[in-house]
Design brief:
Radius of gyration: 23 Å
Structural class: mainly alpha
Helix content: over 70%
Largest sheet: 3 strands, antiparallel
Distance between the termini: 16 Å
Shape: globular
Length: 314
C-alpha cells in the first residue's frame, strides 16, 4: 500500500508497502530544494570562493609551464580526427615535454590544494548542513578529516581509471604496433568508454559512505572514525542511500551531456559568430552546469537527512 510519512519537519517521505521509497522521496526532496534557493546559494558561494582562486592558481602555473618548455603549439592546433596516428604522435610528444615540469609543480601544488580544499569544504559543508537543519552539531575538524579521506579515495579511483586507459592502449595500440600491425583505435575507444562508465558506476555505488559520514558526524556528534564506520553500518537504510547515489550518478551524466549539447549549439553558426560570443556562451554554459551540479549536491545531502530521520522515527 502506498502512502507517505512525515519526518517531523513538515517533509513528506514516500512510503509503499510499509517501506520508505528512496527515489520517490528524492523527487520530493528536489521540490523542497527548489523552494529553498538559499541552500543552493550557500553551496555555490563556498565552492566558488575556493574554486575561483584555485583555477586562477592552476592557470598561472600552467601558463608558466607552457612558456618554459619547447611545446609545438602549431602542431597541436593542426591536429585532426581524420589523421588519428599523427594526432597521437603529436600528443605523445607534447606529453613527453610537459610531464616532467607538471610533476615537479604537482609536488607542492597538489598537497596545497588538497589541504585547503579539506579545510574550506568542511567549513562550507558545516554551514550548508546547519542551514538545512539547525539542530545538527557543528563538527568542522571531523568534516576536515572525512573530506581528506574522500579526496584521497577519489584520487585513487582516478589512478585506477588511468591504469585502465594504459592497459587498453597496450592491448589495442602499443602491442599491435610492436608486432608490425595496425592499431585498433575503435577497440581502444570502446574499452575506454566501458572502463569509464564502469568505474563511474562503481564509484556511485561505493562512495555514498564518504558522503553520508559528515552528516552522521553532525547528527550523532561523533568523531571521524566513528562516523565513517557508522556510515557503512546503517542496515536497511544503506540500500536507500545507495539508490539515491546511483540516481545522482545518472543525474551527473545527464548534466554533462546537456552541457556538451548546449556548448555545441553555436558551432553550426560559427561562420557568423565571433570568438568573443563563443567565449561568453561557453563560459555561461559552464556556470550553469556548475550551479546545477551544486543544486544536486545539496539535494543529495537533504535526501540523506530526510531518509535517516524517516528510518529513525518510523
Amino acid at each position: 500500500m502506498a502512502g507517505s510519512f512525515n519526518d517531523g519537519q513538515g517533509t513528506i517521505v514516500a512510503v509503499a508497502g510499509g517501506d520508505v521509497r528512496a527515489t520517490q522521496s528524492f523527487v520530493r526532496v528536489l521540490e523542497e530544494c527548489w523552494k529553498r534557493p538559499l541552500l543552493t546559494l550557500y553551496e555555490v558561494l563556498w565552492r566558488w570562493i575556493y574554486g575561483i582562486p584555485a583555477l586562477w592558481l592552476l592557470w598561472r602555473v600552467g601558463s608558466r609551464i607552457v612558456a618554459s618548455v619547447p611545446l609545438d603549439i602549431h602542431g597541436l592546433e593542426a591536429m585532426t580526427v581524420t589523421q588519428p596516428m599523427k594526432a597521437a604522435q603529436t600528443l605523445a610528444q607534447a606529453m613527453d615535454v610537459l610531464l616532467p615540469p607538471v610533476m615537479a609543480e604537482a609536488k607542492w601544488l597538489g598537497p596545497l590544494l588538497l589541504v585547503t580544499w579539506s579545510v574550506w569544504s568542511a567549513l562550507g559543508r558545516t554551514v550548508v548542513l546547519r542551514k538545512i537543519d539547525p539542530s545538527l552539531k557543528a563538527r568542522p575538524f571531523t568534516l576536515m578529516v572525512l573530506q581528506a579521506i574522500r579526496v584521497v579515495a577519489l584520487l585513487a579511483s582516478f589512478g585506477v581509471w588511468f591504469a585502465c586507459l594504459q592497459g587498453a592502449a597496450r592491448v589495442t595500440v602499443t602491442n599491435p604496433l610492436a608486432r608490425g600491425g595496425d592499431p585498433n583505435l575503435v577497440g581502444y575507444f570502446a574499452l575506454t568508454i566501458i572502463a569509464t562508465i564502469g568505474l563511474f558506476t562503481l564509484w556511485a555505488i561505493v562512495s555514498w559512505g564518504f558522503s553520508v559520514a559528515p552528516l552522521l558526524a553532525m547528527l550523532r556528534d561523533e568523531g571521524p572514525g566513528a562516523a565513517l564506520a557508522g556510515a557503512f553500518r546503517l542496515g536497511k537504510l544503506k540500500s536507500k542511500l545507495v539508490e539515491i547515489n546511483l540516481v545522482m550518478g545518472i543525474v551527473k551524466i545527464a548534466l554533462i551531456v546537456l552541457a556538451l549539447v548546449f556548448s555545441s549549439t553555436p558551432l553550426p553558426f560559427e561562420s557568423i559568430t565571433t570568438p568573443e560570443f563563443l567565449g561568453i556562451w561557453w563560459a555561461a554554459d559552464g556556470v550553469l552546469y556548475l550551479a546545477a551540479s551544486d543544486f544536486f549536491h545539496v539535494a543529495r545531502l537533504l535526501g540523506y537527512l530526510r531518509l535517516w530521520k524517516a528510518y529513525e522515527e518510523h
